[in-house]
Design the sequence.
């Protein structure tokens, strides 16, 4: 496999994770700062699942009212998604 094929495949995977994230973000009917924690947890869990399905290695943590999810791929690329929620 040449580099361009690998790059296109990685770009497709990153785009798929991004698309899932956009759908999840749009699924909430209220502003991001008013998102309930359970909605943020659900979105973060789906982002982790999308990362695994795309062949990545997920990492997540929660700090200051936001859940952070990052996905690292074998080629070193990283996708990060934040899920802020209100109290």
Sequence:
């Amino acid at each position: 496999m040449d580099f361009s094929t690998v790059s296109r495949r990685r770009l497709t995977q990153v785009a798929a994770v991004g698309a899932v994230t956009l759908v999840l973000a749009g699924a909430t009917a209220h502003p991001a700062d008013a998102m309930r924690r359970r909605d943020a947890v659900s979105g973060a869990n789906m982002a982790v699942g999308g990362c695994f399905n795309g062949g990545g290695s997920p990492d997540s943590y929660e700090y200051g009212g936001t859940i952070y999810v990052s996905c690292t791929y074998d080629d070193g690329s990283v996708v990060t998604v934040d899920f802020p929620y209100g109290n």
